[in-house]
Design brief:
- By secondary structure, the protein is an all-alpha fold.
- Helices cover 84% and strands 0% of the residues.
- It has one domain (2-103).
- The protein is flat and about 40 Å long.
- The model has no long low-confidence stretch (mean pLDDT 95).
Length: 104
């Protein structure tokens, strides 16, 4: 259950990170509200997950999910670069997340 909460927390982290782009410096009320709500939900779910998961592992996985998801959405939504080296580095992050899951 804690891993499911952590996955969901990571997805909400992706939501608020991408949402920041749409807030236009927090000047647009609806995107700003949704972004702030995503921040709150993400941190709350992380807090629930760390009740049973090691803190360092949970935090690393949470930020890893957020990083990987944000990079891929940046490529898809905003035309960010998708160079082979960049994708390789994202693969390293995914490998690190998987490794932490296996040893936790």
């Amino acid at each position: 259950m804690a891993w499911s909460l952590l996955l969901l927390a990571g997805l909400f982290e992706v939501g608020w990170a991408v949402g920041l782009k749409y807030t236009d410096g927090f000047t647009r009320p609806i995107p700003t509200t949704l972004t702030v709500l995503s921040m709150i939900v993400s941190v709350a779910l992380l807090g629930l997950a760390v009740k049973t998961l090691p803190m360092g592992t949970a935090y690393a996985v949470w930020t890893g999910i957020g990083t990987v998801g944000t990079v891929f959405l940046g490529i898809w939504l905003f035309g960010d670069a998708a160079t082979p080296m960049r994708l390789f580095c994202i693969g390293l992050i995914v490998a690190g997340i998987a490794g932490l899951k296996l040893v936790a």
